[in-house]
């Protein structure tokens, strides 16, 4: 375990918790970048103002694709102080909480479809000092009436606007009803959206109350012009989010 994996986590989580205080924010998805140049990529995006990145962890079982695991993430952690927001698209995520925490992840988001009972999994994540989240796929029925007890444990919820497994897919606007339902069931909850988000689709997400936009292809396809792409995406976000309070969520908000 890298010393910085846990020793600097407190400062990273302070950054993470404050990212949405002035409105919705963007986290680049590393799924869309060149894994072979990851240290260079992490350095470049940190220099242009990125503070947190989204890690897409796939096991080839829960989704039909395979990416990386704790040993690779641990090496990346040695190279950067960026917040690691890890989206676990894996079966039996409860078996992997400690390895991913030790590797330097700061948040762990597990799929509702991958756990029989969310409560004990979320409790274990939080016991490791990480932020805990639940992700839900487009076809999954989200039952929030009555409000499930595990909702109170969430630091965030991730609404998938494509089926997970591959980048570059087309945004499904029908999932925005889940965003609204989560906001109603748990006022103040940070809600993220992932899949097909870019300049032409982020407005609809923000209008529904999304706080965090995970963007991959629309950012990293710029490659040698990442600074321009980052500036353009954030400018577009400011254009569609005129109110600085839209999407704001404070950890002291009542449940």
What does this structure look like?
The protein is an alpha/beta fold and 255 residues long. It has one domain: Aldolase class I (TIM Barrel, Alpha-Beta Barrel). The protein is built from ten helices and eight strands. Strands 1-8-7-6-5-4-3-2 form an eight-stranded parallel beta sheet. Helix 6 links the parallel strand 4 and strand 5. Helix 4 runs parallel beside helix 5 (97-103). The radius of gyration is 17 Å and the shape is globular. One of its GO terms (biological process) is purine nucleotide metabolic process. It holds the Pfam family Ribul_P_3_epim. This is Ribulose-phosphate 3-epimerase.
Question: What characteristics describe this protein?
Answer:
10 helices, about 260 residues, single chain, TIM Barrel, alpha/beta, disordered C terminus, 8 strands, globular, eight-stranded parallel beta sheet
Quick structural overview:
This protein is α/β, with parallel strands linked by helices and 255 residues long. Helices cover 35% and strands 17% of the residues. Helix 4 runs parallel beside helix 5 (97-103).
Blueprint of the fold:
Layout: H1 3-7, H2 9-18, E1 25-28, H3 38-47, E2 52-58, H4 70-79, E3 83-89, H5 97-103, E4 107-111, H6 118-127, E5 131-136, E6 156-160, H7 176-185, E7 190-194, H8 202-208, E8 212-215, H9 217-220, H10 226-240
Parallel strand pairs: 1-8, 2-3, 3-4, 4-5, 5-6, 6-7, 7-8
């Amino acid at each position: 375990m890298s010393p910085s994996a846990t020793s600097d986590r407190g400062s990273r989580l302070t950054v993470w918790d404050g990212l949405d205080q002035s409105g919705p924010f963007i986290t680049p998805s590393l799924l869309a970048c060149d894994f072979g140049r990851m240290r260079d990529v992490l350095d470049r995006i940190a220099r242009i103002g990125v503070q947190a990145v989204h890690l897409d962890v796939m096991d080839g079982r829960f989704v039909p694709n395979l990416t990386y695991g704790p040993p690779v993430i641990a090496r990346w952690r040695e190279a950067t102080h960026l917040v690691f927001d890890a989206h676990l698209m894996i079966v039996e995520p409860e078996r992997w909480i400690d390895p991913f925490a030790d590797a330097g992840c700061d948040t762990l988001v597990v799929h509702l479809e991958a756990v029989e009972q969310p409560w004990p999994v979320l409790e274990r994540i939080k016991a490791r000092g990480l932020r805990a989240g639940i992700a839900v796929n487009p076809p999954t029925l989200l039952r929030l009436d009555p409000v499930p007890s595990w909702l109170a444990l969430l630091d965030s919820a991730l609404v998938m606007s494509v089926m997970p497994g591959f980048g570059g897919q087309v945004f499904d606007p029908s999932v925005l009803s889940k965003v609204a339902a989560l906001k109603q069931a748990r006022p103040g909850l940070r809600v993220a959206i992932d899949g097909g988000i870019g300049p032409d689709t982020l407005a609809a997400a923000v209008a529904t109350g999304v706080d965090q936009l995970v963007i991959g292809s629309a950012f990293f396809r710029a490659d040698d012009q990442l600074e321009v792409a980052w500036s353009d995406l954030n400018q577009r976000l400011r254009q569609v989010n005129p109110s600085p309070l839209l999407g704001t969520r404070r950890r002291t908000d009542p449940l």
